[in-house]
Amino acid sequence: MSHPPAFGIMAEFTEGDALTGAVRAARAAGWTRLEAYSPYPLPEAAEALGVSAAPVGYIALAAGAVGAAISAGAAWYVSVHLYPVNVGGRPPNAWPVFMPTTYLVGILWACAAALIGMLTLNRLPRLNHPAFFARGFNRATEDRFFLFLSVEDPLYEADEASHFLRSLSPLRVTEVRST
After folding, report:
1. Pfam family of this protein, just one (predicted)?
2. CB contact at 8 A, 39 and 143
3. pTM of the entire predicted model
């Protein structure tokens, strides 16, 4: 019976500082295809990975502005051109009347875009990934920190990657196989 092909190699650490140091060491050694997993955000590790702030805020702002503009435009068009009704002597294009719906539609569009943008940028939902089956990886959401080196990295040689990770003093090093 043949084994599935290797997907990469993973090191497990007990502290966030150890993971951050490992990420820095891997970057300094020239590794480019690596991922870090932790139960809470580690800004220093993210910086060492070269992960920039996700543009979710800009996505939400743009979608909110577009949604608000569409809402205001539609309300104006309906009130001025399709159904102009004189209510209490106000003009048909009284913009303050359109503001509550414009605001609410803008917020709705911004929230929906933020959710969709975050899921898309994080490549979620990811229901199956070979790293999920690494030994002890279930603790990545509790109290463990993991550094994953991918076989797609130009530096990857199984023995050298394993030796490199073991030099970082992890709790354990596990080979991750494709499922």
Report:
1. ActD
2. yes
3. 0.75
